[in-house]
Amino acid sequence: EYRYTITEDGRYPGVVNDPKSQREITITVRDFRTGELIALVTGDDLTFTNTFEPNPNEGQISLKKKISGSKPTTDSSFHFLLKAENEGQSQPMPGGSPEEEEIVELTGEGSTSFEAIRFTKPGIFRYTVTEINDGVAGYTYDPSVYTVSFTVTQSEDNIYDLISERKIYKNGVEVSEILFDNQYSVKSHGGGGGGG
What we know:
With 196 residues, the protein is mainly β.
């Protein structure tokens, strides 16, 4: 019997080696007196599976808040919901969250962002962003539905890098930003329009 150890060694940019780096095999040589020696090979599977993992890329989703109509006497808090369009497919989420929904809060007018989304593989990843109707008195909420699409590909200049292209759509029409415009009126009972 002859025993051998086969080891995978070395490093290459972007390549993760098989976690099982060593395999053991035994070669048993038999003489059946036929004029030939027969070798029987037993032991581990000699297939090493390596994985290519390019450098990740991050995408950002930001939004703006506008209040039209009368000027409120105090600033209210508003909430915005981001959802993975293809739920149940382990789509990357802001801040690496395992949830398929994320909410950000903004007080009064201004802008805010969800945490960065980290992309580790090529693909098309879509998210919807809506304003939650909190029913604050005096406000008519913006019912717009925004879809943010990230197309993630390998760079043509460096295959080890991922690049992402972001596009934003409002009710199916491409736009340059996410803007929610709420109407405020002292005569309004609040809670009109909006999603959530």
